[in-house]
Write a structure and sequence with these properties.
GO terms for molecular function: acyltransferase activity. InterPro entries: CAT-like_dom_sf, Plant_acyltransferase. The chain is globular and about 60 Å long. 45% of the residues are buried. By secondary structure, it is of the alpha+beta class. The chain folds into two domains: 200 residues, Chloramphenicol acetyltransferase-like domain (Chloramphenicol Acetyltransferase), CATH 3.30.559; 200 residues, 2-Layer Sandwich (Chloramphenicol Acetyltransferase). It contains ten helices and 15 strands.
Length: 447
């Protein structure tokens, strides 16, 4: 088949200079069970450069050199993540400059094939040929793959161990790496990382000893960690049924219309909603209605909330560890589908407002003490990649014309849209029996 991906070279890239050796402990937030996977980005480029300027050999050389230089301040990415020997459930990074994996490949795909959702969940899997199933088994925490397309364009696939960084941290690293790859040799040697990478994982450790929060009535509740009964065969459906990738772009007009609908179906106390609140509520309701679940099934919308400025004191600029907690909007199918968009947007808004310094401390203690972790029953996970800066990553080939996941799966991603700062693309895979109805509902803005 012309669309296959063929690996030409796979090499280990080590830091360009000597880096500190030793063992770095990860924070309780880094060590959470549900983060033990690889963040996988797919960046598609359509360079407007003469062919000589985009010589494959020269481009590969530039990327390898830039990667090696970026690994000097980001040296934990060149280490290996493992469980702490003391068995307390925490993780650590063994730093000996072991290196990361760089792959060059060629493919029969063309750039316009990325303008729509993939036909199936794993269609683009081989644009990151090495899939790390267990991030604690000694694999490199970072994999970069440059794939040349049939039409001369390019795809960069990136896999980063989520235990080492969150979306914001990974995007800061990738932007620095890309900037290095796109600059002249003179500027390359003088490059200053902005922001300067900061490790400091101890800033998110619980205070010793643990506060007795489980007996404190004033301690925040954590519905994101609560288990709910699966009365609808929810898990079996998502496991057994084929998932169909979907993609829809919401422009400013669409988002303004959703805000109007939300306000018209809200209590009088609500004066405004953000684009995120109305869009996530609309997607959640469309998803729930399309699945046609029993009215008393409890549903949750989980989404990440950056806590860098919510904790006291705030985290330093350049902190690239996991600095987010899960916001959780939850209700029954009956209320979510029957009470209108304003009700769902209000649930999202309230979930965001709950997250303050005390809430973050409580999460840190919960995951440290009892390894609290979210369940999957009735859950839609939504992640806002559109606000990370991924659309700016320029390896000397221009800005990416498509930013998305390597595999479109059951979690929903809000993605940036090329050259449209006021638009957002929502991509999610839904069970095949619900796909057509979901696509119809998500395009409707009247309920």
């Amino acid at each position: 088949m012309g669309s296959l991906v063929h690996v030409k070279e796979a090499v280990i890239v080590t830091p360009a200079e000597s880096t500190p050796t030793g063992v770095l402990p990860l924070s309780p937030l880094d060590s959470q069970l549900f983060l033990r996977f690889t963040i996988e980005y797919l960046l598609v480029y359509k360079p407007h450069l003469p062919s000589a300027a985009l010589s494959p050999r020269a481009t590969v050389t530039r990327l390898k050199s830039a990667l090696a230089k970026a690994l000097v301040p980001y040296y934990p990415f060149a280490g290996r993540v493992r469980a702490k020997p003391d068995g307390d459930g925490g993780l650590e990074v063994v730093c000996r400059g072991q290196g990361v994996l760089f792959i060059e490949a060629v493919s029969g795909y063309e750039v316009n094939e990325f303008e729509r959702a993939p036909r199936f969940v794993t269609q683009w899997r081989n644009f990151l040929s090495v899939h790390v199933a267990d991030v604690l088994k000694g694999a490199p925490p970072l994999v970069v793959q440059l794939t040349w397309l049939k039409d001369g364009n390019a795809v960069v696939g990136v896999g980063i161990n989520h235990c080492l960084c969150d979306g914001i941290g990974s995007a800061e690293f990738l932007n620095s790496f890309a900037e290095l790859a796109s600059m002249s040799q003179t500027k390359f040697s003088e490059f200053k990382f902005k922001p300067k990478p900061v490790w400091d994982r101890h800033l998110l450790n619980p205070p010793p000893p643990f506060r007795p929060s489980r007996n404190n009535n004033n301690s925040p509740s954590h519905p994101e960690f609560d288990r709910v009964p699966d009365i609808s065969g929810f898990m079996a459906r998502f496991s057994n049924e084929k998932l169909v990738p979907t993609s829809f772009i919401f422009n400013k007009t669409n988002l303004d219309e959703l805000k109007k609908v939300a306000l018209s179906t809200s209590k009088l106390t609500e004066s405004n909603y953000t684009s995120f609140e109305v869009l996530s509520a609309h997607i959640w309701r469309s998803w729930a209605r399309a699945l046609n679940l029993p009215s008393n099934q409890t549903l949750k919308l989980l989404f990440s909330i950056n806590v860098r400025e919510r904790v006291k004191p705030s985290l330093p600029s350049g902190f690239y560890g996991n600095a987010f907690v899960l916001g959780c909007a939850h209700t029954t199918v009956k209320d979510l589908t029957g009470k209108g968009l304003g009700h769902a947007a209000m649930l999202v808004k309230r979930a965001k407002e709950r997250v303050d310094n005390e809430f973050v401390k409580s999460v840190v203690e919960s995951v440290s003490r009892s390894r609290a972790s979210p369940d999957s029953v009735g859950v839609l996970i939504l992640s806002q990649w559109s606000r990370l800066g991924l659309e700016k990553i320029n390896f000397g080939m221009g800005k990416p014309v498509h930013v998305g996941p390597v595999c479109c799966d059951r979690y929903c991603l809000l993605l940036p849209v090329f050259n449209r700062t006021d638009a957002v693309k929502a991509m999610v895979a839904v069970p095949s029996t619900a796909a057509a109805r979901y696509e119809h509902l998500v395009r409707s803005f009247c309920s």
